[in-house]
Fold this protein.
Amino acid sequence: MTGGTTLLARVRGLVRAASEVYRASPAAGLLATTAARLDEPLRVAIAGRVKAGKSTLLNALVGQELAATDAGECTRIATWYRNGTSYRLTVYPRSGAPFQLPFARSGAATQVELKGLEPQDVDRLVVDWPSTALQEMTLIDTPGLGSVNVELSDYTAALLAPEGQRASTADAVLYLMRHLHGLDVRFLEAFHDEPGRRRPFNTIGILARADEIGHGRPDSLDSAARIAARYRGDSRVRQLCQTVIPVSGLLAASGATLRETEYRALHLIAAAAPEAARQLLTSADRLAAAPTPIELLPVERAGLLERFGVFGIRLATELVRTGKVSGAAELSQALLHCSGLRELRELLMTRFAARAEVLKSRSALVALDSVVRQFPDPAAEQIIRALEEIRAGAHEFAEIALLDALRTGGSGLPTRALDAAERLLGGAGVDDRSRLGLEPTATDSAVIEAVREALARWQRTAEAMVTPRDAREAARVLVRTCEGILFSQLAAQYHSSLSTPRR
């Protein structure tokens, strides 16, 4: 289906019109920021409790050790990582003009000296870094929730789940959790961009540090997968986020940035006498400092432990010992596969990036709504009418609203129809074949046949007198989705026939 570009153009035009109305108003700066945001990549925040592994996951997603993972000053400030043409670090203080700092590294992570400012005096840090991983979206690393420093937790909550009519800083959130605690639930309930409405579609839940579940046992990742599956099937969790997947950020980060020297060290352990290797891998303490005939210095072992964790070292040495990998490149790929990072990246592309224009448009409309409410002006009446028309008439918004309703139990559709409805709305990907549950290799004819069947089925639901009213409304949205797919397929078929030379 298409149409996102048209929606974005309408929203961009509306923001421009509002900027003219409010050009002499205190709202002018907010509208300028809103307009610029429409042209930026999607903003995805990484949030969670303290020590959930947010910075480690960000490093894995970028494939570089950019974010500091210790408890230094950087972790107390929201830090934006965006694609840039050069390496640059910019500080945005809460008062005063932004300024650049020289790029400094501590080990591999970015090191920041705030030039006399305290962390609470800084609104955000922005790191520009040339990276294909950051082309589709800007990642925002946030301070941990549940910190003993209440101001830090409040800062993150205000950043992502502001009170009142203001839009969230982020368009979407990756929320990391070890287990679902009350604090997690309260934050996820608050993260929405329209007051009084939950938006599970905006959020992907990450069962973080999956390698530590089960205390690093060989079946830790399997245990994490079972727990994540339970969460996905829990109706309460479905109201908070669109899905939950297990990810080992440490395994992903070490796999993405594996060094040849580390592979050689892991190979030494794998090639050692079985009893010597077993004793060394018994615990983190033994790994770090116990005497061993394996020719690795304590500092080398401590480095492996910091980078891979006990589970990661056990897994890597087993892969090497059994001959499943040979060489650093193969081990890197194997660790990435086990970590869950590839599934997360696919979700980011299919669930967030593919709908970036819709998500950004919605954030812009929330900001615009805030302006017209906070600064009433007779000249803005036309802006208000146009804003409501877009909200009520854009099918892209109707699809997302119905997706959220399916997860919060408000669609009225029977249980047996929920999976098909969610898939058709783009819950598993927004391309036509994903929406229809077809293989990527399905022919255009198969797509047309499938969408006609779906269209007829949802038309019957929408027109049946026995169908409850809210279910009929939901079915009408699905009918329009089917019509859009069918129209785009037939149009493509027609244009293809025009370009085919006649004999």
